[in-house]
Amino acid sequence: FLMERKTHVKINRKEVMLAKLRKSCSCTPQKLKNFIMDFFPVLRWLPKYQCKEYIWGDVMSGLVIGIILVPQAIAYSLLAGLKPIYSLYTSFFANIIYFLMGTSRHVSVGIFSLISLMVGQVVDRELLLAGFDLNDDAPPALGDGSLQNDSLSNTTAFNLTIVGINAECGKECYAIGIATALTFVAGVYQVLMGIFRLGFVSMYLSESVLDGFATGASLTILTAQVKYLIGIKIPRSQGHGMLVITWINIFRNISQANLCDVITSAICIVVLVTAKELGDRYKHKLKFPLPTELVVIVVATLVSHYGKLNEVYASSVSGAIPTGFIPPKVPQFNLMLRVAVDALPLAIVSFVFTVSLSEMFAKKYAYTIRANQEMFAVGFCNIIPSFFHSFATSAALAKTLVKTSTGCQTQVSGVISAMVVLLVLLFLAPLFYSLQKCVLACIIIVSLRGALRKFRDVPARYHVNKVDTLVWVVTMSASALVSTEIGLLVGIVFSMLCIVVRTQRPRTALLGQIQDTSFYEDDLEYENLSTVPKVKIFRFEAPLYYANRNYFLKSLYSLTNLDPNLEVARRKKYEKKEKQHLKKGNHRTANGLGIGETTLQLVPKQIDFHTLVVDCSSISFLDTTGVNTLKEILKDYKNLNISVLLACCNPSVIDSLKRGGYFGKDFGSMQEMLFYSIHTAVLFTKDEK
């Protein structure tokens, strides 16, 4: 039977686009109100806030996250190559802006180790190009909060007139200038992606690519912190192969290790790891996580201050952290041009981590988010703080998990966390002057446990899917051994190549009938399948397009044990020889047979079928080459009196075949060439023959 297709009304795309444009450009009070409410989701949910039900969980989770944020912000400043005060600014502004614009109730947006590393790599590169010394162990500045000249922290001053700044600027000033310019451009990219609805870009970052990228970056972060752990002074490596170069420098200078820093690092790592393991084991009994990082920082600061570890043992310390806020400053446009390319991967990674975490927790707690609004939110979390000496932010899994485990209900908890950071900014920051950098390095390294544990999952990942494991290994290796940006690009390209290769060489099979049923399956995979006499059923498990055309033909000819082109050529050659013998009057053929026996030779024994059924159920689409390939086999097999039938074609494949002229001009033979199941094609063949 032939199913009748529905008639679809043709849509005038031009009129539709004009109608949408008119609708979007029109402005009414109600539309303006909806736009503002959508752009600031807090206006929708805050008036409905159930204070008695939500306030305790939000306050509790906000306090816990705020306590965790302070030591992490100070520690991650090492990754970004900036002073701790800028990390605190970043944590404060990100929480406030996401509270106003975010649609997720649970994610914690703020400073993130991976983003800090990417910022730090750009900052270090630009500092090096500007002629600054990357050794950050020089005597610290007095911490007066001035960004005009901090030459005390670096003896090299740089006149920035070449990049459009007509004032002399020191190392710290130039570093934060690069970071804010990078952050601003990344935020603009994210907002533009939201305007043009380019969120689909995140689809090309598979789970294997993201995990491999995070693990490779974690190895880079770990390597960068080793020099602080053991207290040696080596130059900060730049460019490709930073991980290998850094380890070579570490082993060359291992004899200069500071014993005080080594002992402090060992104690801190043992305490932090032990506390984390106990917290994970007894988390169901604890109402909130142990503030281990804060306790370690407070104790270490007191020991360092009263033990005078910096003066007596030359242990490197954080230095002065100014209180209050530095006056806002517009990011330099000319610096933006220098980092415009670097901002693109930063924008994509920041957006992907934020949206993926938002979707994960929205699904877990049964509510919805708007991915496009999330892109706007994270974009403005970068644009606005860049005027206040902050750098790029993203959602962080570890802090989000802590947030949910401590009873977070809404983003009010983010405001509470921001208030905790504000308290440190206004009053407590100078108290961390004597905090050793090795303690901060320990906090960073212990926070990488989750990413580094991915190595333990490799055997299980390999058992589930070998190709995904290969993508993970390639992305991780490139991110660690080359650079994070190159690693991300390599991971995306390699994962897409894997998809292409899998469609180029897909599974192919000859099918047999399941006994006493109308179903057919792979003859090599299942037992007790019966072969349909004189019929070959061929399955191709991929779209048929230009890249796999040759493999399709090769597999078909191999499985059916017949290449129609070779067979036709052989027959023509044989007929030519026979005609030559007959012209000479020889009534015996070239094989010594009589003329009457020649016909038997023209039908070789290996042709044991008269019908080929192509199972198209796995062919999702055809391009022009695919249609021509099917037309080619139809013609070639017809020369051998073999019928070719198509079964289980989806509507798009049928339309492609119609447009390509597979069924002829009037589609008159379509009922005899196309079937909606393999079994109907087989029954038709039996009836015909």
UniProtKB/TrEMBL annotation:
List keywords of the entry alphabetically: Cell membrane, Glycoprotein, Membrane, Phosphoprotein, Transmembrane, Transmembrane helix, Transport
Q: Does the keyword Membrane apply?
A: yes
Domain of life of the organism encoding this protein? Eukaryota
Catalytic activity reads: nitrate(in) + chloride(out) = nitrate(out) + chloride(in); bromide(in) + chloride(out) = bromide(out) + chloride(in); oxalate(in) + sulfate(out) = oxalate(out) + sulfate(in); oxalate(out) + 2 chloride(in) = oxalate(in) + 2 chloride(out)
Transmembrane intervals = 54-78, 107-123, 174-196, 208-230, 250-274, 335-355, 376-398, 410-428, 472-501
What is the annotated localization of this protein?
Apical cell membrane
Question: Per the annotation, which location comes first and is thus the protein's main one?
Answer: membrane
The protein's matches in NCBIfam families, at most eight in alphabetical order, are given as: sulP
Q: Which family does it belong to?
A: Belongs to the SLC26A/SulP transporter (TC 2.A.53) family.
User: What name does UniProt use for this protein?
Assistant: Sulfate transporter
Organism this protein belongs to: Sapayoa aenigma
Question: What would be the name of the gene that encodes this protein?
Answer: Slc26a1
